[in-house]
Write a structure and sequence with these properties.
It holds the Pfam family Mg_chelatase_C. By secondary structure, this protein is α/β, with parallel strands linked by helices. 36% of the residues lie in helices and 17% in strands.
């Protein structure tokens, strides 16, 4: 029995071994292992391609035996026409020796041509997040793009005949290697033992925002530690501008994060490409719950919270989102993961995003404006903010009340200077050996990394007693203080860091 490898993305990625054996019985191709309809149909495509090739190649003749194809592990549902090439090759190579450490993908035409399929690039991207390196045989029409994935050694063929000679002729195999690299991975930086891809351009710059020094400081802290943040202020004070510019000063992505972001994006039926910029998703408040969190009638489709993984999820006009949507947001914010269950699939996505919210202080927006009169009653304001629960606000690290007085003479920090501060804090976290940024630390890591001096600890304990802070709120404060200390290049959280962190806590 011989085997080759491929992968399936029916619900989540699984590496599949295609095994083949021949037995004395009525001639047929029997495929087992929870194969979907498109795989069952592959026997017809394989037979046609082999029959056509058998005129010129002896190994392509179907033997007068039963051919048993097993897709392992057998308990995983599988689908996709990219299994064709692996099945055909195993039939042809039964009497040959070959290197089995290969992933093989390709749909067969009836004439033996090898073609790509719609989901193949998505599969390759997800595969790149699970294996450190791999040798892959692919259709020529997708090989150049796949070769840009850093940890793949890609070989391209255009027909079943070429695929056969690839495994039987070493010189021919070497000639099929595809050499390509994406320019994004040519300019990297090394921090500790990790490689990162920096963003060096700021098409949207914080220098366009005047007189909001405290908000800009909060943005630096938020970006450096990936802390959830909410801006509240009058219309036109710079809330949405700050949220949109925050993306460009976020810490650089690792190669693995770039690949995963591209893999998630590929599930959204869009043309995915590698980017130094982290994802930015901004659903409208009229979006459905399934479009935000993922779902569908039968298949679990990816939603905005998963597409924002590793980047920013921005809710503008926060109070206009339904209470059911905002309450459902608590799980991905807390667990950094969302589970979607449907009739035919169950899937889990990472949701390690930075949540950004923007809201007016009241329906008319003038409650904080010193020059305009607010026309809203206390009842109107209460109704306006009714969908934002205390439990949701408890999961917000930074609350920023923006000034309504805009000083046009004070541009303050620009994105370049803010990015340098973010990088200072980011380097401290990576150099400390953290697997997560400060905003995503769990309780064990908080105890390990968020070390305070006595004065800082006293401040936090007094605040917890005075303001009746929950344990979650205390942990959030410690994590924000840790980021502030990192930006200041302090190993221990000091009193001033704790006080600044407490200044960003929301108090009703």
């Amino acid at each position: 029995m011989k085997s080759l490898k491929t992968a399936s993305l029916s619900d989540t990625l699984h590496i599949i071994s295609i095994e083949a054996s021949l037995s004395r019985a009525l001639p047929a191709i029997d495929i087992v292992g929870l194969a979907g309809a498109s795989i069952k149909e592959s026997s017809t495509r394989v037979k046609s391609a082999l029959n056509l090739l058998s005129n010129s190649l002896e190994e392509a003749k179907l033997p007068p035996l039963r051919i048993n194809i097993n897709l392992s592990p057998s308990g995983v549902k599988k689908d996709g026409s990219h299994f064709d090439l692996g099945i055909a090759l195993l039939i042809m190579l039964q009497k040959r020796h070959f290197n089995e450490d290969f992933f093989v993908f390709g749909e067969l035409g009836l004439d033996g041509a090898v073609k790509s399929s719609a989901e193949l690039f998505s599969i390759l991207l997800f595969l790149s997040t699970q294996v450190s390196s791999a040798k892959i045989l692919l259709p020529k029409d997708i090989a150049l793009k796949a070769a840009m994935i850093p940890n793949f050694e890609v070989y391209a063929i255009s027909s079943l005949e070429e695929a056969f000679y690839f495994f039987t002729n070493d010189e021919f195999a070497s000639s099929k290697k595809v050499q390509a690299s994406h320019p994004l991975f040519e300019n990297t930086i090394k921090i500790g033992n990790k490689i990162f891809v920096p963003n060096l351009e700021f098409p949207m710059d914080f220098k366009d925002i005047y007189g909001q020094d405290r908000a800009k400081r909060a943005c630096v802290i938020s970006a450096a530690g990936f802390h959830n943040i909410i801006f509240e202020g009058s219309p036109g004070c710079g809330k949405s501008m700050s949220a949109k510019r925050l993306r460009y000063i976020l810490p650089p992505q690792s190669k693995e994060e770039v690949l995963k972001a591209c893999a998630y994006e590929s599930l959204n039926a869009t043309e995915a490409d590698f980017s130094a910029l982290r994802p930015f998703r901004s659903p409208h408040h009229t979006s459905t719950r399934s479009s935000i969190f993922g779902g569908g009638s039968s298949v679990a489709k990816i939603g905005e919270v998963a597409l924002a993984n590793g980047g920013i999820l921005f809710f503008d006009e926060l109070p206009h989102f339904g209470a059911n949507i905002l309450e459902s947001l608590r799980e991905p914010l807390q667990d950094n993961r969302i589970n979607i269950s449907r009739v035919n699939s169950k899937i889990s996505y990472d949701t390690k995003f930075l949540f950004v919210g923007a809201m007016n202080p009241c329906p008319c927006g003038n409650a904080l404006n010193t020059e305009l009169v607010c026309t809203c009653s206390p009842k109107d304001i209460k109704r306006y903010k009714a969908s934002i629960s205390g439990a949701l606000m408890d999961r917000i690290d930074l609350y920023v009340l923006m000034s309504s007085q805009i000083d046009k003479t004070n541009a303050g920090l620009d994105s370049g200077a803010m990015s340098e501060l973010v990088m200072r804090g980011f380097r401290a976290q990576i150099s400390r050996g953290q697997s997560e940024l400060n905003g995503k630390l769990d309780e064990a890591d908080i105890a390990k990394y968020c070390l305070c001096d006595k004065a800082a600890l006293d401040v936090i304990q007094r605040a917890a007693s005075t303001y009746n802070l929950s344990q979650r709120a205390i942990n959030k404060t410690l994590k924000v203080a840790r980021t502030i200390a990192d930006i200041a290049q302090n190993e221990i959280i000091a009193k001033e860091h704790a006080l600044e962190a407490l200044g960003y806590r929301f108090r009703a």
